[in-house]
Each structure stands twice: as C-alpha cells, then as structure tokens.
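To the wet lab folks,

You asked to see what we're planning to order before we commit. Fair enough. Below is the target structure as tokens, and below that is the sequence we designed to fit it. If anything looks off to you, flag it before the synthesis order goes out.
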C-alpha cells in the first residue's frame, strides 16, 4: 500500500524506550526507518530474525528498525519490559532499538505514534508485525502487512529506494 494521505512528520514525535527513558524520534531524522509492532508469542515472531538481518545490512547506509511491542492482538506480548528485552536478545539477538509497549489499535489509550501512523498511512496493523517504512524526512512511505517478511523483495526494494532518495 503506497501512502498518499498525509505528510505527517513521524520524527517530530517522542516515545519512551523499552526501559521507559524518553526518546525523541528526531534522533532518526536523516535515516530511513521501519516501524514495526512486535510481539514475543506470535506466529510471526520469527520475523525478529529477518528484521535484525535487514537492520544489520542497511544500518551502515542510514537505516534503522524501530520495534514497538504491543499486546493488542491475541495478547501475544504480555511480558514486562525486562522479559521482552531478555526474550529478544537471547532468542533473536535483537540489536535494533526497542520501545515501550504501546497500544496500536484505535481508541482510548492508543499511542500517539500509532495515531499518527494511522493518520499518515490511512491504516493500522490488523495483527502483530505490521511495518511502516518512513523516509529520511519522517514521512510514511508505505505500509506492509504482517505477512510480508522483512527480507521480502518488495520490502527490501522499497528500503533501497528510500535510502537512495535524499528525502
């Protein structure tokens, strides 16, 4: 799904790290990012491995994966921040930035980041491991549903195209 809706600036927002430390997303301005709602007990959880490989491959070119744990779908992320970190590091050697558990679904309690992503993309994830590709300037470029693997050609080609663009 190519995005034409809004030029919302994702990098103008601030979130908290998994350890509850403030983290302005402005630190990613100038990079291409992939924002993903993640969960530890999902059929798509093995995508952590592919996300880490894509992160490692493209990081030197100015790319980051940003993981947002969510318990919205099937209660598949019930853990504490410490449990989530331990699982991600020990099972998948996740090195990309992880943020505080958030509500991705619309309604009371929805995280500002996902309200903004919904406004910009016109869609929200319908399950865990929905992926938003964001440009160097903070504009949402494309949404990829859960079934699209991190190393799928469609996604990696979109990442490469975004990395080759100035904005």
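Sequence we intend to order:
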């Amino acid at each position: 799904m190519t995005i034409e809706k809004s030029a919302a600036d994702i990098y103008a927002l601030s979130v908290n790290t998994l350890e509850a430390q403030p983290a302005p997303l402005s630190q990613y301005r100038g990079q291409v990012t992939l924002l993903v709602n993640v969960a530890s007990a999902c059929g798509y959880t093995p995508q952590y491995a592919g996300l880490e490989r894509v992160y490692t491959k493209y990081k030197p070119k100015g790319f980051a994966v940003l993981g947002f744990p969510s318990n919205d779908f099937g209660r598949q992320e019930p853990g504490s921040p410490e449990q989530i970190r331990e699982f991600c590091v020990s099972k998948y050697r996740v090195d990309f930035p992880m943020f505080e558990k958030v509500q991705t679904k619309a309604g009371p309690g929805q995280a500002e980041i996902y309200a903004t992503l919904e406004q910009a993309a016109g869609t929200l994830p319908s399950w865990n491991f929905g992926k938003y590709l964001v440009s160097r300037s903070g504009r949402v470029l494309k949404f990829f549903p859960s079934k699209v693997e991190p190393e799928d050609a469609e996604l990696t080609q979109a990442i490469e195209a975004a990395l080759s663009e100035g904005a």
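Structural context that might help your review: Strands lie at 14-16, 22-24, 32-38, 63-69, 131-134, 140-144. The chain has four helices and six strands.

Thanks,
Computational group
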